[in-house]
Structure formats: C-alpha cells, structure tokens
C-alpha cells in the first residue's frame, strides 16, 4: 500500500491531528523525568500511549533524542517501534538533506522496512535541489513510505530564503517554496492512481502562503499533496483557521502540534489530545 493510501486511511479513520513528540528539557522537568536518554524514552512512550486510539499520527522530533547520542537513539528506536505497534503513523522529523548518495543513506535508515529507525515517513530538506532527493522519493514509493519536503516553514527567519526567486531552469521566476511545491507535485503525478501522494510538503501554519507566491485558491491538485503543517498551538496558529490558511491544500493537511499539547503534562495529555482531535474534526468538516 502506498504512503498516500495509508495516510488517506488514517484521515478517514482517526483524523488529521499529529501529536509531536518533543521532549524539551523543560518538559522533561515538568513531567518529573530526568534530562537523560531514560527521560526521553519514558516521555516518548507516554506520548505514544496517550496518542494511541485518540490521534492517528505522531511526529517524534529526532533532535531531542540525538542530544543523548547512541543512548538517545536507542530510546528513539523504542519509541518508534512502540508507536508503529500501536497503529500510529509515524513521521520522523529528521530534516535530512545532502547530495543524492548521502541523503539516500538517510532515507534507507528511516524508510527501509526492518531498519532499527523505521518510520512511516520522514522530513527532508531540498536545499541541495529537489533532484538530490529523487532516490529517497523512489525508495519511499517502493516501500510505501512518505517524505515531507520543507517548502515554507513556520519559523519567520526562513522567509527570506524561501521567498527568494529561482534563478534558472524550468522553475525560473518562482519562489524557492513554490518551485519545491511544483517539483514535489510533478513527482506525485507519475503515480496518479493514488488519492494522496507519496511526496508531501512542510508548509507552516504561521505563514501567509501568498507571500511565497503560492495561491491557495487554485484548483485542488491530483493526487492531493500531503502537507505536514506545524505551527499550531505554541507558535500561534489556530486550528479553526486551518481551512482558510491552506485553502485548496486543506484536504492533504496534517495538523501538527507539540508543546501546545505536551504542556498538559502526563496526566492531562490524553484529554488535551481528545479535545484537539475534536477541534480538528470540527474545523475540517
Ligand atoms: O516548519 C517547521 C518544520 C518543523 N517544525 C517542527 O515542528 C515542531 C513544532 O513544535 P511546537 O512545539 O508545536 O511549536 C518542532 O518539532 C519543530 O522542529 C516546525 O516547528 N516548523
């Protein structure tokens, strides 16, 4: 089954809320856990337990596990396995990018069935050109895994680069963000049999996509582009605004939130997820 088909099934059955697994040091402290590999393991497993059956998707932020080196990675492996065993779709927020041969090795680590770090999808950066991630995209298609390519990210300091205009080639004159969207869409168009594509985008919920030359009113795309949308909660975006923010991209949007939910603490997290999942359902109809 393709990643897009699996994502469509999650949307239909569990909704489009994605719970971020971001064990910040201050959250570990607030949760009564140590700032250590054991702490991030316990935190991650507790988030998985709270999300299972309430949301369809989780997004571990790899950086918070990487802080603890090999012990942190061992903890992450356990969290990834527990999440997948609980039936959650797992997006590893690893933001990998490099020349083709090296970024392919990253994709093999995160997207190969049976790999210790196996996830259902990963985030990637196309700063070295969307062509550099051609092989990871092919690997994803082969294994039923997804990739989310950074395009218009939620952090304000990215705007200058992502709104810059492409100098040459087929996408000349488009913003970097828009050119990435068009390239990702072209890849998905080669698999028109899927309702949602294998390749997706990261579009922050905090940005005005018009500033990136992206017209959200344009006709819906086929296959629908999966959109990982961080920026809800702590970064200020409101779930109720998602249909307006994303327009024709809304059918593919994954509403991603970390701190806004995790601040509820271990005893309040399940209720916070229930409430947010209901809010997401209500706003997306
Ligand atoms: O554009 C982006 C891409 C990724 N992120 C990541 O999402 C979460 C957001 O956490 P919150 O606590 O909900 O703010 C975090 O892991 C970021 O690295 C993003 O924020 N923006």
Automatic annotation (TrEMBL):
Pathway: Pyrimidine metabolism; UMP biosynthesis via de novo pathway; UMP from orotate: step 2/2. Keywords: Decarboxylase, Lyase, Pyrimidine biosynthesis. It catalyses: orotidine 5'-phosphate + H(+) = UMP + CO2. One of its GO terms (molecular function) is orotidine-5'-phosphate decarboxylase activity. SMART domains: OMPdecase. It is an enzyme of class 4 (lyase). InterPro entries: Aldolase_TIM (IPR013785), OMPdecase_type-2 (IPR011995), OMPdeCOase_dom (IPR001754), RibuloseP-bd_barrel (IPR011060). Its EC number is 4.1.1.23. SUPFAM superfamilies: Ribulose-phoshate binding barrel (SSF51366). Residues 16-273 form the Orotidine 5'-phosphate decarboxylase domain. Belongs to the OMP decarboxylase family. Type 2 subfamily. This is Orotidine-5'-phosphate decarboxylase. It comes from Leifsonia williamsii. The gene is pyrF.
């Amino acid at each position: 089954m393709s990643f897009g088909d699996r994502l469509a099934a999650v949307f239909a059955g569990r909704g489009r809320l994605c719970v971020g697994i971001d064990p910040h040091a201050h959250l570990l402290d607030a949760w009564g856990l140590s700032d250590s590999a054991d702490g991030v393991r316990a935190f991650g497993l507790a988030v998985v337990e709270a999300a299972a059956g309430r949301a369809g998707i989780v997004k571990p932020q790899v950086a918070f596990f990487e802080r603890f080196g090999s012990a942190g990675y061992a903890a992450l492996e356990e969290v990834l396995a527990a999440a997948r065993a609980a039936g959650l779709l797992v997006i590893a927020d690893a933001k990998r990018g490099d020349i083709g041969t090296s970024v392919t090795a990253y994709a093999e680590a995160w997207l190969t069935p049976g790999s210790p770090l196996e996830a259902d999808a990963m985030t990637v950066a196309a700063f070295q050109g969307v062509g550099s991630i051609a092989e990871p995209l092919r690997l994803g298609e082969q294994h039923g895994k997804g990739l989310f390519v950074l395009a218009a990210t939620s952090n304000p300091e990215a705007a200058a680069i992502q709104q810059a205009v492409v100098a040459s080639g087929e996408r000349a004159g488009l913003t970097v963000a828009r050119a990435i969207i068009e390239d990702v869409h072209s890849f998905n168009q080669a698999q028109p049999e899927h309702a949602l594509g294998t390749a997706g985008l990261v579009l922050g919920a905090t940005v005005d996509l018009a500033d990136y030359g992206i017209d959200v009113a344009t006709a819906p795309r086929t296959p629908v582009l999966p959109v990982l949308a961080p920026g809800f909660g702590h970064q200020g975006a409101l779930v109720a605004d998602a249909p307006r923010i994303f327009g024709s991209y809304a059918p593919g949007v994954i509403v991603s939130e970390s701190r806004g939910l995790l601040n509820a603490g271990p005893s309040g997290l399940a209720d916070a997820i229930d409430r947010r999942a209901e809010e997401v359902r209500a706003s997306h109809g």
